[in-house]
Automatic annotation (TrEMBL):
GO function term, MF aspect, one: pyridoxal phosphate binding
Protein name: Ornithine racemase
Superkingdom classification of source: Bacteria
Gene3D superfamilies reported for this sequence: Alanine racemase
Gene Ontology, cellular component aspect: cytosol
The keyword Isomerase is annotated on this UniProt entry: yes
Source organism: Pontiella desulfatans
Cofactor(s) this protein cannot do without: pyridoxal 5'-phosphate
InterPro entries: Ala_racemase (IPR000821), Ala_racemase_N (IPR001608), PLP-binding_barrel (IPR029066)
Keywords recorded for this protein, A-Z: Isomerase, Pyridoxal phosphate
Length: 377
């Protein structure tokens, strides 16, 4: 089998999506499933549709175009502010886009007029995380200008938290977003369809039993794909945390000193190696590296420790076990490692549909050999 590869269990992803759609529906909240970490994979998009997700979102118009060309049905949302240079494609392929700049919206209006269609927009509001967003004091003026533009329909407002600065969604900032929605409606005299409270980081708040106010939409990616809460990276009850695993092949397996020797300078990525172990260790090298994954985002199986990664090598310590050359080791991934692996052309994707078993650990495809004589000093 080809390695390295991502083994992607579509049934487990469907279980995660279906579970979250149902739980949030009880709070009056819909789900926009975010596809950006999957490179717009139609296999995953269709699985999400089957799980009850109505709208798919992506930050790259190229991924939306890919899904359209592969026949993925239903509404699509461009969740990053469109580039002016992409306005025509956004209008053509996405029913909705999230925006913060009036000049961009003017270009969307012009493109929509040429295409003879309406384009919906959601205005993103800055509530403290300092990524994208219109300052609340400027929101009414922005709405007033937008309502003058032809072929543009203001569908709602939204915000994004916990991405740049780690500001957590809570009752205070969610209440502020609800109040801004009320204010727009009372001032301009029309209802807003979408009040998008944020991303997977909102789940703990949304499912806590708190008053969710006007919030009726969340944009979920990590929680569906990896089954965890981004605020603390803890598993979400009832969701699979192993729907996607990374499998890499061993290309070297030797006992080596744990400490380098010679004059030490910077390594290939600008820092000297700082080994934490001493003596000789059982070491393995896998054929994958920083070009393909974020090594800090990998969770190895028990008794395997990640030591370092170069551009195309992952060096691990394997304790008392020697993994034969040609054997494979499976890792769980966090969002950062998944994002990089999915977009690497050197990591194959294997779609599996086995019957889901909640919280089952990743497996090793070949059993390592016990090396009883190895002792660390």
């Amino acid at each position: 089998m080809i390695a390295p590869r991502l083994e992607i269990d579509l049934e487990k992803i469907k279980v995660n999506a279906r579970t979250l759609v149902k739980r949030l529906a009880l709070q009056g909240i819909s789900v926009t499933a975010v596809m950006k970490a999957t490179l717009g994979a139609p296999e995953i998009a269709n699985a999400l549709r089957q799980a009850g997700v109505k709208t798919l979102g992506d930050a790259r118009i190229e991924n939306i175009v890919k899904m359209r060309h592969r026949g993925v049905p239903g509404p699509m949302a461009m969740i990053r502010s469109p580039m002016i240079s992409q306005a025509a494609r956004v209008v053509k392929y996405a029913e909705l886009s999230f925006n913060t700049e009036l000049e961009v919206i003017r270009m969307l209006s012009a493109a929509a007029q040429i295409a003879k269609r309406m384009h919906g927009i959601v205005l993103m509001v800055e509530l403290g995380d300092l990524r994208e967003g219109i300052l609340p004091k400027d929101l009414h003026g922005m709405v007033r200008e937008i309502l003058r533009l032809p072929n543009i329909a203001l569908k709602g407002i939204g915000t994004n938290l916990a991405c740049r600065s780690g500001v957590s969604p809570d009752a205070v900032n969610m209440r502020e977003l609800s109040a801004l929605a009320d204010s727009i409606e009372s001032t301009f005299g029309f209802p807003l369809e979408i009040i998008s409270g944020g991303n997977s980081a909102n789940l703990a708040w949304a499912l806590s039993g708190a008053n969710t106010g006007r919030i009726n939409n969340l944009r979920l990616g990590e929680s569906i794909l990896l089954g965890c809460d981004p605020l603390q990276r803890q598993p979400i009850s009832g969701l699979h945390t192993d729907a996607i695993t990374l499998v890499a092949e061993v290309i070297e397996s030797k006992v080596k000193p744990s400490q380098p020797w010679g004059t030490i300078a910077q390594n290939a990525f600008g820092a000297p190696s700082t080994p934490k172990t001493h003596g000789h260790i059982q070491q393995a090298i896998l054929a994958i590296g920083r070009q393909d994954i974020d090594p800090l985002g990998l969770e190895p199986p028990q008794d395997v420790e990640i030591l370092e990664a170069s551009s195309d090598h992952l060096v691990v310590k394997t304790g008392r076990y020697a993994y034969p050359v040609g054997s494979e080791i499976a890792f769980r991934l966090n969002y950062s490692a998944l994002l990089r692996a999915m977009t690497s052309p050197f990591v194959s994707k294997l779609w599996v549909n086995r019957t889901p078993i909640l919280q089952s650990p990743p497996t090793l495809t070949k059993k390592p050999r016990l090396v009883s004589s190895l002792q660390e000093k």
